[in-house]
Design brief:
It is a single chain. This protein is an alpha/beta fold. It has one domain: P-loop containing nucleotide triphosphate hydrolases (Rossmann fold, 3-Layer(aba) Sandwich), CATH 3.40.50. The protein is about 45% helix and about 15% strand. It has seven helices and five strands; from the N terminus they run E-H-E-H-H-E-H-E-H-H-E-H. The chain has helices at about 15-25, 35-45, 50-70, 85-90, 105-115, 125-130, 145-155, and strands at about 1-5, 25-30, 75-80, 95-100, 140. Strands 2-3-1-4-5 form a five-stranded parallel sheet. Helix 1 (about 15-25) packs across helix 7 (about 145-155). The longest helix has 20 residues, at about 50-70. The radius of gyration is 15 Å and the shape is globular. It starts with a strand and ends with a helix. The model has no long low-confidence stretch (mean pLDDT about 90).
Length: about 160
Amino acid sequence: MVIVIMGVSGSGKTTVGTLLAARLGWRYFEGDEYHSAASVEKMRRGVALDDSDRWPWLEALRGLIVGCLARGESAVLACSALKESYREFLSVDERVVFVYLEGDYEVIARRLGARRGHYMNPGLLESQFDALEEPADAVRLDISASPDELVAEIRSRLGL
């Protein structure tokens, strides 16, 4: 199984994803590490990525998912997966499950404003919400819960 922790920047994907992977004893993959240097620089400058920037990144993530599943390896992947077409592309088969960390703009903007050492320009949050197509078929969790509570809820809802 590959669990994709999705949501806009600042929703807690890395925090929840690393904690979930540790609790399950699974590998964790940070989707941000698969962006090209050019895409990272665009985001650092406050320029929103478009689909031509994202598709090579999504292809790399799909390859990662395919590899994990082929090896019978379970993993957790943090990936924004903002659009339905992106999630469809990453949904290799029924062993890929999406967990959507949802929260309102103001809460996430505060989180981004407090974050240090990340290339994502907080000014891009609006573009992330504009691009977001909320999933109908994901485990949906409110980010107002603590990371421990979110991980417990994911484990419960997925029978892990």
